[in-house]
Design a protein that fits this description.
The complex is a heterodimer. Chain A is mainly α. Chain A contains nine helices and no strands. Chain A has two domains: 122 residues, Four Helix Bundle (Hemerythrin (Met), subunit A); 41 residues. Chain B is mostly helical. The longest helix of chain B is centred in the middle third of the chain and has 32 residues. The chains are: A mainly alpha, B mainly alpha. Chains A and B meet through helix 7 of A and helix 1, helix 4 and helix 5 of B.
Chain lengths: 210, 471
């Protein structure tokens, strides 16, 4: 199992270094890049211990959604100031090489984890947990999620609802003085309400805009 | 098949939450309607919970959800204090322009989380309940988003609470790792006394829980959050999450970890002593009543923890009595605070109380009774609360804890008495408005009468609580 431990040390080394770099790097965009690298390394570690569902969820949720959201947020902060920094002098733009470096490392990690698939470690049954090792993670979660853990599932639904209400409460602002289009009003207008015939006296004209 | 009667309160509160939300969304200007509907649903809820008492205790969902005397009682007082919160604060939230449909809905969802926490017999269920209640609390704290202090308090509570949740989850994973289960009963069967990792797990989970009840040294957020959030949310903060978190502490320590009591007893004693002393000393210099009540609640949580630290049934019961009386006293205190209103502006400084006995004799008398009770002066309810705690502590020969508790009571009495002195002997200021709405008057009268006349029927509360046996 020497290969397995080598892989483990590679991934954990990258994970720890990138976690340190998240806080150490001065550029916020680089911090997010390192965060993504950290997430990918940790999900590789999960896959190595046989928790493939957790690993894939890490990739989808954290890398796919959270980290990209972070990237957007970071890029939106201080836009003017950063724009100046990025575009004023082309030499100071270090995002592209940094991004390339990190994507190369991620590519390398994925190669390693797929290649090292067959070197999976034997799960040691230290506690009588009653785990059936023949069933995959996804299957065994599927067996219990809607049966034994239905209450937890429902409560997490309530949590999401509360989170949604909270986000709306904190960000929604009723703006006044906006002209809104109302289809109903437009359609239900009658001819006699909107058109008025006026006798125009000669040499006097009419005032329309009252 | 689950007997649906047992989880009827939770089902009812979630369904009424969604129903009320839909009404609020589809009906224009329905804030008042939504508020009243919430109140009605809470009244129905309390009836459902009282009905539940006739059923024998039972557990559900693979014994991860427990309905017993403890959960029934705690849920009942949670809902009752929720009613008091809504009763007292309707005018206040109108006057600071946060009378929106989301406000009662968030309160309901937070209470659902608390009920889940109270009934949980499993680390996962408990964590879900905790997150549900605190997620709503983050939003409630920063509900008055035009106010800088309110936004700051919401953010502060969010960041610190997320940190404590992280620590708590780490503790949960350690406990799971060393016992092989998240269920409290199975943990109790599986734990090995000498395992160090398990102790770490208990400590980390206790850190997360101590944060929720703002016990020293995890109290830093409390004064700022109490001061910054709207007063109607402060009263919510001061009462409801503490009931839920205290129940979880009791269940968490006494169901899975009763056999390893020597591992956690010292921690709870330390939290208790530190909270009592800090709550007494730090409140002296405050001149904002909301900050003062934050420190006083820290101190009160210290007494409640002293009861838990005894490791006896009597200790748990005394803590439960303490939290029940604490909630009544806080309702009375905040009702008085809501009455300090002049031209739709609310006052919360101690010097605003100066000489109100001349202009408002009845209000100041109620305030006097509440403060005496908070200080623990006989024959008011607050005295009995402390009395039961000390009785349980001395029964277990923990004299040191009892002495510290008594000393900090004396120190704490100073700042309560200082407010009374300012109220009665300082120069009178302008009059406050007296046209309070019925709900506020009602809750002040009810809570003051309970505080005042508790000594005549102490048996009725004790009798209910004596049924709660965990050991």
């Amino acid at each position: 199992m020497i290969i397995h431990s080598i892989f483990f040390f590679i991934f954990s080394f990258i994970a720890i270094v990138s976690a340190v770099m998240v806080t150490a790097s001065k550029n916020t965009v680089h911090s997010v890049f390192f965060l993504i690298l950290d997430f990918v390394s940790i999900s590789c570690l999960f896959i190595m211990i046989g928790a493939e569902f957790l690993g894939m969820m890490m990739l989808i949720v954290y890398v796919g959604a959270v980290a990209v959201l972070f990237l957007f947020v970071v890029m939106m902060l201080n836009v003017t100031q950063q724009k100046n920094e990025w575009f004023a002098s082309s030499s100071s733009s270090s995002h592209i090489p940094m991004g390339l470096l990190i994507s190369i490392i991620i590519f390398f990690e994925i190669i390693v984890v797929i290649a090292g698939w067959k070197y999976k470690t034997e799960v040691v049954n230290s506690f009588p947990l009653g785990i059936n090792l023949d069933v995959t993670n996804t299957h065994s979660i599927g067996y219990v999620l809607y049966t034994d853990y239905i209450h937890v599932f429902q409560i997490s639904g309530m949590i999401l609802l509360t989170a949604m209400i909270g986000a709306i409460v904190l960000t929604f602002r009723q703006r006044t003085g906006i002209k809104r289009q109302s289809y109903l009003k437009q359609i239900s207008r009658e001819r006699n309400e909107s058109i008025e015939l006026k006798e125009v006296e000669s040499k006097k004209g009419v005032k329309i805009d009252v | 098949m689950i007997d649906i009667n047992y989880i009827l309160p939770e089902l009812f509160i979630s369904i009424s939450l969604m129903f009320i939300l839909l009404i609020g969304v589809f009906k224009k200007n329905s804030s008042l309607l939504v508020y009243n509907l919430t109140m009605i649903s809470l009244f129905i809820l309390i009836i459902l919970l009282i009905n539940l008492r006739s059923l024998p205790s039972n557990s559900f969902f693979g014994s991860s959800y427990l309905i017993d005397e403890l959960s029934n009682y705690m849920k009942t007082i949670t809902v009752a204090s929720g009613i008091f919160v809504l009763l007292t604060s309707s005018k206040y939230i109108k006057s600071i322009n946060i009378f929106k449909i989301e406000y009662p809905v968030l309160i309901l969802s937070s209470m659902l989380g608390m009920m889940v926490m109270i009934s949980s017999n499993d680390l996962i269920v408990f964590y879900m309940g905790l997150e549900l209640q605190s997620l709503a609390l983050y939003v409630l704290a920063s509900f008055n988003r035009e106010n800088l202090l309110s936004s700051e308090s919401g953010l502060k509570y969010f960041v610190l609470s997320a940190l404590s949740s992280g620590i708590l989850l780490y503790g949960c994973s350690l406990v799971y790792g060393f016992s092989g289960s998240t269920n409290f009963n199975l943990i109790a069967d599986n734990i090995i006394n000498t395992e160090n990792g398990l102790t770490f797990g208990i400590v980390f989970i206790l850190v997360g829980l101590a944060f929720k009840i703002s016990a020293v040294p995890f109290h830093m957020w409390a004064p700022d959050v109490y001061e910054g959030s709207p007063t109607s949310v402060t009263i919510f903060f001061a009462i409801l999450p503490k009931i839920a978190a205290l129940t979880v502490i009791i269940r968490f320590l006494y169901v899975p970890f009763l056999n390893v009591i020597e591992q956690w007893q010292m921690i709870i004693i330390f939290l208790s002593i530190a909270s009592m002393i800090f709550g007494a000393v730090a409140a002296i210099g405050q001149n904002n009543l909301k900050r003062l009540v934050a420190y006083s609640s820290i101190g009160h949580m210290g007494y409640a923890l002293a009861g838990i630290s005894t490791g006896s049934n009597q200790g748990i019961q005394s803590s439960i009595i303490y939290i029940s009386i604490y909630l009544i006293m806080n309702v009375a205190f905040f009702s008085c605070l809501f009455m300090l209103r002049r031209n739709d502006k609310y006052f919360e400084k101690i010097e605003d109380l100066s000489g109100i006995s001349k202009n408002h004799p009845i209000l100041s008398l109620c305030f006097l009774i509440t403060l005496f009770s908070l200080a623990g002066i006989p024959p008011l309810a607050g005295f009995f609360a402390k009395f039961y705690i000390f009785l349980a502590v001395i029964e277990k020969q923990m004299y040191f804890l009892a002495i510290i508790g008594l000393l900090s009571t004396v120190i704490a009495a100073f700042y309560y008495l200082r407010i009374i002195k300012i109220m009665y002997f300082d120069d009178a200021k302008q009059k406050y408005d007296v046209d309070h709405h019925l709900g506020l008057k009602l809750s002040l009268i009810i809570s003051t009468i309970i505080i005042l006349l508790y000594f005549m029927y102490p048996g009725s509360l004790v009798e209910i609580i004596n049924k709660i046996n965990l050991i």
